[in-house]
């Protein structure tokens, strides 16, 4: 879950979806991504994010959406990219009566201890690749832990 839902989160969502599909456990997971803000609702992911995923053989048809109250009641985990998102999500979750989601930084699972996954929007192609690599490491580690 991230601010605009067009760069980091679509990459993380697509990576996670591919990992669970490759491990044939996709029926055990409901995967989605959303934004804290409503800036980009309905937009496709950033072209550089799509290009990065395509370079790794991954396609996505994701359209940006904003997080809903129901997300906090439906999902077991809401994983975000940085402290600002974490703060916003925790604040929003406090307004939801029966929130069941555990809200964490995706980077808390990184074996290389890169806690924050920086927004590549104002960066270059290499920054999107860095986000992709972080997402792969974190999603693999997340999936390896017992749920």
Short descriptors:
147 residues; Rossmann fold; two-stranded parallel sheet; 5% strand; cytoplasm; Ptyr_pPase; acid phosphatase activity; hydrolase; Tyr_phospatase_low_mol_wt
Explain this structure to me?
The protein has 147 residues and is mainly α. The protein has a single domain, classed as 3-Layer(aba) Sandwich (Rossmann fold), CATH 3.40.50. Helices cover 41% and strands 5% of the residues. A two-stranded parallel sheet has the order 1-2. The protein starts with 7 loop residues before the first helix and ends with a helix. The model has no long low-confidence stretch (mean pLDDT 95). GO terms for molecular function: acid phosphatase activity; non-membrane spanning protein tyrosine phosphatase activity.
**Quaternary class:** single chain
Tell me the CATH architecture. Answer: 3-Layer(aba) Sandwich
CATH topology: Rossmann fold
**What's the CATH H-level homologous superfamily?**
Response regulator
Query: How many separate helices?
Result: 5
Distance between the first and last residues' Cα: 20 Å
Main sheet specs: 2 strands, parallel
Give the uncertain stretches in residue-range form.
Answer: none
CATH level 1 class label:
Alpha Beta
Number of strands: 2
Query: What strand line-up does the widest sheet have?
Result: 1-2
Rounded to the nearest angstrom, the radius of gyration is 14 Å
Mean pLDDT: 95
- The SSE string, one letter per element, is HHHEHEH
Can you tell me the number of structural domains?
1
Structural class category: mainly alpha
Percentage of residues in strands: 5-15%
Helix percentage:
40-55%
């Amino acid at each position: 879950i991230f601010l605009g839902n067009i760069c980091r989160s679509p990459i993380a969502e697509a990576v996670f979806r591919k990992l669970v599909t490759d491990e044939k456990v996709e029926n055990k997971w409901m995967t989605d991504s959303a934004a804290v803000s409503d800036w980009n609702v309905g937009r496709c992911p950033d072209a550089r994010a799509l290009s990065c995923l395509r370079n790794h053989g991954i396609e996505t048809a994701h359209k940006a959406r904003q997080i809903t109250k129901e997300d906090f009641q439906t999902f077991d985990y809401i994983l975000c990219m940085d402290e600002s998102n974490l703060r916003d999500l925790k604040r929003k979750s406090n307004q939801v009566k029966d929130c069941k989601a555990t809200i964490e930084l995706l980077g808390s699972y990184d074996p290389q201890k890169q806690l924050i996954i920086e927004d590549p929007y104002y960066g270059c192609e290499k920054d999107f690749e860095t986000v992709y690599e972080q997402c792969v490491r974190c999603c693999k580690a997340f999936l390896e832990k017992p749920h």
